[in-house]
Specification:
The chain is mainly alpha-helical. It contains 6 helices and 2 strands, in the order ααββαααα. Strands 1-2 form a two-stranded antiparallel sheet. A hairpin with a 5-residue loop joins β1 and β2. α1 packs across α4, α4 crosses α6 and α5 packs antiparallel against α6. The two termini are about 20 Å apart.
Length: about 160
């Protein structure tokens, strides 16, 4: 099992949460789905076991990510181990329950208020508040639909 093999050097619970977050956000350029954009830290507080840290989420929220086909070897092993995969499902369910309508949406709106005036006064004007609003609406739609999408894919 994962716990008896890789679990000796990798924190299984943390990796399950890491994999769930990559799946939930559709982060196609992550360790789990492309073996890219991550760091590993051997945490003394976790018995020296490895924890995976996401990095450079520029390809997050990508709907075409094959969430049922992890590419990273550790994520593959977790996915094929029923106990580890169940932990991943637990975290996906938790994200699906807590993100839509949660504090994250309020934080996005608060950040929008902070950037509105500087954006309006930016001489380069590389984007507009209309573009920001469009992206926000798409993000909030993602939050609302992602749990159902993953469930429909058997995740």
């Amino acid at each position: 099992t994962f716990a008896e093999t890789l679990g000796l050097v990798v924190d299984e619970e943390q990796h399950a949460a890491f994999l769930a977050l990559a799946a939930w956000t559709g982060h196609s350029d992550s360790y789990s789905y492309y073996s890219n954009n991550y760091r590993v830290y051997f945490d003394p507080s976790r018995g020296g076991r490895a924890v995976f840290l996401p990095w450079d989420p520029d390809w997050a929220f990508y709907r075409d990510t094959n969430v049922n086909g992890p590419y990273g070897v550790v994520s593959q092993r977790c996915f094929t181990d029923s106990a580890c995969r169940e932990k991943v499902r637990h975290y996906v369910d938790r994200l699906s329950a807590e993100v839509p309508g949660g504090t994250l949406e309020a934080e996005v709106l608060a950040i929008t208020e902070l950037i509105a005036e500087p954006l309006a006064n930016d001489p380069k004007r590389e984007t507009s508040m209309g573009d920001v609003g469009y992206c926000q609406a798409d993000l909030f739609d993602w939050f609302a639909r992602r749990g159902g999408e993953l469930e429909s894919w058997g995740f």
